[in-house]
Design brief:
This protein is mainly α. The chain has 2 domains: 54 residues, no CATH class; 158 residues. The protein is 82% helix and 0% strand. The protein is built from 7 helices and no strands. The radius of gyration is 25 Å and the shape is elongated. 30% of the residues are buried.
């Protein structure tokens, strides 16, 4: 009776293979320990009793899924802060490089450059504030015993903060791309041009990773909600 029980538990958690393997192994160990301790002589009856005591696989999967989702949300909050910091470092490195190898804006592009730079600054600081707010907000929340309405609302608030941070970061990176293009277009191509291009590529990668993490968390939350509807 253990194999069908574990198979169903694995199916309930198939959206997260790593979590599924971990939970199935842990549950199997507990079940076998319970069977060994059971005084009944009939092995099949011992398995039936152990499975019955353990409960519905869907309910167990829901509990583990919520714990996994809470841990994922905290990792996403930390990732948002670290990725924004990485973008900041890339920006500063590029500006420092401009101090070594000047790439001045063409006179006709200065007005556009100043406007894009203003957008860049506002977007970056919005990303910083939203990212820090999301990280702190989810960090102080307790992991619930189930996917409650309260926790569902908390996740929505956290997702909004992180989505705002991600959107602002995308705008910031796009503005950096425009500013870098304006500088490189006005300059003669050289190997030194690779440094600004690489720094912008790093920024794009950071923004892409953050968006990817948020999408993964949204999928995890949706599956968890279906597994254990908010109550």
């Amino acid at each position: 009776m253990i194999r069908p029980y574990l198979a169903r538990l694995a199916r309930e958690l198939d959206f997260d293979p790593s979590l599924s393997r971990q939970v199935v192994q842990e549950v199997e160990d507990h079940l076998r320990e319970a069977i060994e301790r059971d005084p009944v002589a009939d092995r099949l009856e011992a398995e039936r009793r152990a499975v019955a005591r353990f409960g519905d696989p869907r309910a167990i999967a829901a509990q583990f899924a919520v714990v996994s989702l809470a841990a994922l949300a905290r990792r996403v909050g930390l990732a948002a802060v670290l990725l924004i910091a990485a973008v900041f470092i890339a920006m500063k490195a590029r500006l420092a490089w401009y101090g070594v190898v000047p790439f001045p804006l063409a006179e006709e592009a200065r007005a556009l450059g100043e406007m894009v730079l203003a957008i860049d600054r506002w977007a970056f600081w919005l990303a910083v504030l939203a990212g820090l707010a999301g990280w702190v907000y989810i960090g102080v929340r307790r992991t619930p015993g189930g996917f409650t309405r309260e926790y569902s609302a908390q996740l929505r608030h956290f997702s909004l903060l992180c989505s705002a941070a991600a959107a602002a970061l995308v705008v910031c990176v796009a503005a950096d791309g425009v500013l870098t293009s304006l500088r490189l277009i006005a300059a003669q191509w050289s190997i030194a041009s690779l440094v600004p291009l690489i720094s912008v590529a790093i920024e794009i990668a950071c923004a892409a990773v953050l968006v990817s993490r948020l999408r993964a968390m949204a999928r995890h939350a949706a599956r968890t909600a279906r597994l254990a509807p908010a109550a």
